[in-house]
Amino acid sequence: MSTDTRMSADAAATPAPSGGSLGHDVGPQDVDDALWQRLTDLAREAMTHAYAPYSRFKVGAAAVADDGRLVSGCNVENSGYGQTLCAECGLVSELVRTGGGRLVAFACVDARGERCAPCGRCRQTLSEHAHPRMQLLMPAGIMTIDEVLPGRFSVEDLALVDGAVAPADATGVPEPDATGVVGS
Q: Which long-range contacts (CB under 8 A, 24 or more apart) does 98-101 make?
């Protein structure tokens, strides 16, 4: 198994530890320097598990959900470049896998452990699961989701189209109406 095209045996055998939980609900008003540091440290740990044999651009991401869960992800490249998953995709997958919810605060780092901005596709992915006042630790400082993705497409846009089903929450599962019918 070549380390150029496959995960090392050590990385494959040692899963990243769970991000854990703060043990209480969290809102944007609760995000302080200590939490930003914890998220940055978790993102750096996630980055060490990145699979980036082609670009060598490893990325780790971490966030806290509104219920206090800490979630993280790393990028996973593929030789078919369009199939590469960014760290934010792994983070959102972990969020959904562990119960869903809204992302309150987010940090992303590159292979140097320095702040890294999410790409446009990832900003939209994060937006789908964002608390309305989600904060992101960007290279230039702390910004809201609306500042990093102004005019973002959201479930409110879907609600404007007759027949479109807009999920009521970040789980992506449409809510039934009063009669129990979904999408009527």
A: 98/69, 98/71, 99/65, 99/67, 99/69, 100/129, 100/169, 100/170, 100/171, 101/65, 101/66, 101/67, 101/69, 101/129, 101/170
